[in-house]
Amino acid sequence: MTELAVSDFAASVVWYRDRLGLRVILLDVANGFALLQGDAGGRLALKAGTPAPGGVTLHFEVADLAAELARLGPSGVPVRDSPEGYREAFVRDPDGYAVGLFEWVSMKTPPPNPLPRGERGDRRVPGPPSPPGGGG
User: Where residue 95 sits, what CATH number does that domain have?
Assistant: First the structure.
């Protein structure tokens, strides 16, 4: 779950509910808190406060990116094709948080990790032990 501080609590709830289609599952107007949920189960908390949009980017998967952009209404939003097999575009919420919308174009197999076992940068997860006799 991600929590965003928002300057206009009511406007933000309306934007995420009506524009992005998230469901409000908890609304505490007196304390300026809302919990919203997407179709895939991801949750977003909105809390009245001082926004800091530079440090957070939200991403939502959509079935049809072109249709979603047409529904949202922003014209001229650049769409980028990624080498990983998805297309994405970014819109901004009322406080300026970046909201990425993406659709999978093709499910590509991720490239194999080019680093040998034990050199993947995470020293907490070593490779399996060598078999007895050092054949490893």
Answer: 3.10.180.10
Note whether residue 13 is domain-resident. Answer: yes
What are the Cα distances from residue 80, in Å, to 32, 55, 89, 99, 127?
35, 21, 6, 14, 37
Q: Which helix (H) or strand (E) holds 68?
A: helix 65-72
Q: Is residue 21 part of a domain?
A: yes
Report d(CA 19, CA 5) in Å as an integer: 18
Side-chain-side CA neighbours of residue 106 (13 Å)? 8
User: For residue 80, what pLDDT band results from cuts at 50, 70 and 90?
Assistant: very high
Q: Are 86 and 127 in contact (CB under 8 A)?
A: no
Provide the domain limits for residue 26. Answer: 2-104
pLDDT-based confidence at residue 55 (cuts at 50, 70, 90): confident
In a domain, 122, yes or no: no
